[in-house]
Amino acid sequence: MASSMDYVLYVCEQMSLAGSITYKKMFGDYAVYCDGKCFALICDNQLFISPTEAGLGLLPEVTMGIPYDGAKPRILLEDIEDRDFMCRLVQETCAQLPMPKPKKKKGGQ
After folding, report:
1. pTM (two decimals)
2. What would the pLDDT profile of 41-56 be if each residue is shown by its tens digit?
């Protein structure tokens, strides 16, 4: 089951104060970015956050889940109602994630 656009938009709105939140459809579900860093996946209307030491430290209880077959475990965030907390979690998580590698130019250059 793919994620609904309503859910994707709601999740992104909940964390919109954390930075520039964007999403990209990938294989029927969505990757979520903050200021260019991919930090979460939305699969089957569930939010999976990349685990970092800072992000895990903010959560009193952690539920890990696998967003799709073959994926690494991620934090399954079921309560997305607290907008301030969501923004803090995104900021703390992204602060510990590396910037994406620059894309190689086409044409062998």
Report:
1. 0.88
2. 999 999 999 999 999 9
